## 1
Amino acid sequence: MKKVRWLLILTSIVSSILGALVVYLMLSVPNDLRADSLLKDARKNITDGQNDKARESLLKIVQQHPRTDAAAAATAALMTLAQKERDDLARAVGVVRTQNEQQTKLINELRTNLDTLKNAPPKVVTVQAPPPKPPAKKVTPKKKTTPKKKPTRRRR
């Protein structure tokens, strides 16, 4: 009787462990499959250049399926994506800084040119008068002769 009792206890323990293992697998395998499909979608979005959609998918994987291999890969992908965006931003800031320096140099050159024009002594322009013309001979106009008046009487 003791042997049967120990055998029943042992089989109950083994069956409960197997049951727990089956429940764990039933609950975790679909999560792994869903997380893997979300990870594939996120990677496709990254290659297509849709970083915002990819970031949303990766965050969803990490939040909804935290204890999966896909969650670890999603975390690594999020870190890589953030580093890439930081590098792009640093490059853009460098370009803006060089443009700013060039514009500052140009503005300073224009200011110095303007200051030299302001502070330059006024230019004296001498205008020579044209040589005087010799006096013209006075021409006396001819006197106009008055025309003869017609008689106003009628002749008969």
## 2
Amino acid sequence: MYWKRIRRWAAAGALAATLAGCARTQTTMDVAPSPKHDARVPIPLAISGQNTVLRITFPNRDEPIEPGQLQRDEICYLEAGDFRIDCYTDGSSLNLGPNDSNDLLTDNPMYGLAPAKADEKDAATAMRLYGVLFLIAGSVDRLPATLADYLQSPGTHLNEAIALTDVLLNQKSVRFIGHARGGNFVVTVELTNDGRDKLEDAMDEIGETTGTNQLVRHVRPR
């Protein structure tokens, strides 16, 4: 829903690039100035958090996902190994089946905010755009801590959690494929020292080594 609005806004010239259509080599997108404002506002696509550094990129063309892959109130989701990071307007979770769900974000304040003036449509769309970016980046940055907690108090998918942890620890960067109503995207993730420490400590707690190099299974954009 929000991605389609952003794409339409971009087509009208309000954004130089969008979250739903254009591949960018730069690390930022610029919001084109409105007639009342000359300043250009950078929108970061390379984001550093406490546990991860991530970069969001987009394919050269729209790639709508198959109907039914997104739940009704879901904004987007990422494939993270066998797990799925589901992003909603009010937060996100790490899931592997309906009975094995773990909270990543329990709130997203951006979605409760709007311009004070109802006629500021460009500002409202920009705020939605930031909300989506913060939701994705915040969810990914919480992944190492949530995964570490899962390893120490596992549900029914411990082996899958170990496999994802091993990939994050042993590959310099890991590509998660994202899907939204407006198209697909890629989130490339690298661990910071804090994120690595959390996962290594959790693996030590359960007596697992981290030397096996496995690949995250994902569907690459065509």
## 3
Amino acid sequence: MLIWISLAVLIITGLGFYAWHLHQKVKTRIAEQEASRKEVEAFVKERSDNITNSIVVIAGAMLEEQMSLSECCIRLSSLLNQLGPVGQQDRFLSLHKAAEELGHIPILDEWKQLKFKQQMTYLKEMEIIEDKYGDFILETCRTIHLNGLNLPKQEEKDGGVGFYQP
């Protein structure tokens, strides 16, 4: 009988140590996951901050007339798309619509390869699009330059300036 009791105590003790060992593994894995999650969050925040800073710089450059409205729209729309829901707010609709309408126009090396007549056709088209959305885009750039991507208090109430209503 003593042998059975000793064997039972030994088995229970072994199972207890095994349970403790599994508990430690789970605890370690949870700590590793938490550290990994914090690392990913820091990376995402840094990337988001860099994109936001780029957006503010581009808006400022537009206000200082260092680029065309067309170039500004394409750049800002691309950066705003990378921010997810923040970049898809209605106040950026004019930027996205203009960028969409400008999307077929060649850029960089493709632009340089165009003949003068083709470039002039595209420039006229860009001018029409800039006239259509220009005021909204400039107001959006002013707001971004002054407030970053945060809405000023009055815009939260009245829908804001720079909104394009089709």
